[in-house]
Amino acid sequence: MLTILLNRLKPLAEEIIVEEQAGFRPGRSTTEQIFNLRVLCEKYLQHQQDLYHIFIDLKKAFDRVWHAALWATMRHFNINANLIIMIQNLYDKATSAVYLNDSIGDWFKTTVGVRQDCVLSHTLQHLLGENYD
Fold this sequence. Notes:
Layout: H1 2-16, H2 30-46, H3 67-76, H4 81-92, E1 95-96, E2 99-100, E3 103-104, E4 108-109, H5 121-129
Antiparallel strand pairs: 1-4, 2-3
Helix pairs in contact: 3-4, 3-5
Protein name: Reverse transcriptase domain-containing protein
Domain Reverse transcriptase: 4-124
Organism: Ridgeia piscesae
């Protein structure tokens, strides 16, 4: 089921996500991104221009995806309403519990974060990262 949803979402997302977003996208390797950065650095050094770059650790970004904003973003980009509803159903019923000292705490509803190890997670996180005016 998740793979079917991904196969429907991915082509739409590829039209929305900026070309520079390389993480977890086919045909865009870390090696290629390192090469691109090196070429930029060499070009700016050669022309004696300032170059600023930033590295952002998105390790926790997947834990902070706000569901309401994600649905609004998907609607803004005209993603099929039925597809949004199917993905929402995965998250609206999601609950979590904290496992500590060999015991599980109370279950609670989650309203942020994408599911760990879900094939949709990277695409959903990238969509939310797209800026729209």
